[in-house]
Amino acid sequence: MLLHGIFVLVTTPFYPDGSLYWRKLEHNVARYSRSPLAGIVVLESSGETALLSDQERRDVLKCARAVTTPEKVLLAGTGRESALETLRLTEYAAELGYDAALVISPGLYRSQMKLPGNLLAFYRFVADRSPVPIVMQNAPSFAGYDLAPQVVLELAAHPNIIGILEPGEANEEVPFLLEHTRGIKRTIPVTQDFQALTPRMLEAAAAQAATGAVVPTEVLMPSSSAVVVTTGLKTREKEVGFQILAGAARNLYAALRSGAVGGMAAFASAAPTAVYEVYAAWKDGDHKLAQEKQERITVAAARIAGELGVPGIKYACDLNGYYGGPVRLPLLPLTAEVKREVELLMKDIRN
């Protein structure tokens, strides 16, 4: 699966009493689906995943999947302390039609997990059995340790591990990982304009064809010998390497210049267009504009997503047309003073 572009880390909406607010989850995901984002990540830590029951996690995955357009790459955050529970949730996400799983490193038994053998066994157990590709998540702020580069390099060779989400402060590791994974090449199907091709896109095209709708011949005519028509869609193949993604919007441009192919950012849940504009300018080779777009969001992203966390992200969502709403205990809402600070930071960041 192609992971190039910006992915939003979806928050989980609640009513004031703490119950799940399904209509607002649908509202947010539907809006993200109409944005220029490459994809949507459900049940990452920004979604208060640790505060959800097992059934709630499954219900959230199901709800988000139902309203996501086929063109958006869908990732499920399935990492748990247990390798077996991680696999079970990954298999459920695959049954729903998710394209890949984002698996955070376990952190409860961190002294043991710092031993390379434990982590290698954890990820290999899941990747060997998972029906969808695995993206590792290096999250030292949650796990309590850093995924050692040598461990990442060993796992990068696994045929079902396609990339890693690195924390915002790890840009110096990106060139090292790229240099030592250059030999990893995988050929994957993409659209004719080199965008991600999801199985849900093929299913939608097949469903349309089954209705008997007449598609003009010129629409299905391949534009070159490299393009083929697959279930009514023009597709081609693209060679990709081990894909590294930035984990924070506050220094996205630096990560892209270091070799990251995109980012998965919590701040994008409140300002998806503003974050995407950094990537778009970099992709176009306009580094001056990319730097300007980065400077526009750096302070806000660092304070809101990096320091205030989920309560800050949710309040920023409320200010920008998305539903943030309350957090679940033990998290507490922002004070009035901090809310005013967030309002000032988001004043000039609008979709």
Please tell me about this protein's structure:
- The chain is built from 15 helices and eleven strands.
- With 351 residues, it is an alpha/beta fold.
- The chain has two domains: 5-185 and 241-345, TIM Barrel; 187-239, no CATH class.
- The protein starts with a strand and ends in a 6-residue tail after the last helix.
- 43% of the residues are buried.
- The model has no long low-confidence stretch (mean pLDDT 91).
Write the layout of secondary structure elements.
Layout: E1 5-9, H1 22-33, E2 39-42, H2 54-67, E3 73-77, H3 83-96, E4 100-104, H4 110-113, H5 116-129, E5 134-137, H6 140-143, H7 149-156, E6 161-166, H8 173-180, E7 186-191, H9 199-210, H10 217-220, E8 228-230, E9 233-240, E10 243-246, H11 252-258, E11 262-265, H12 272-283, H13 287-308, H14 310-319, H15 336-345
Parallel strand pairs: 1-2, 1-11, 2-3, 3-4, 4-5, 5-6, 6-10, 10-11
Antiparallel strand pairs: 7-9, 8-9
Helix pairs in contact: 1-2, 2-3, 3-5, 11-12, 12-13, 13-14
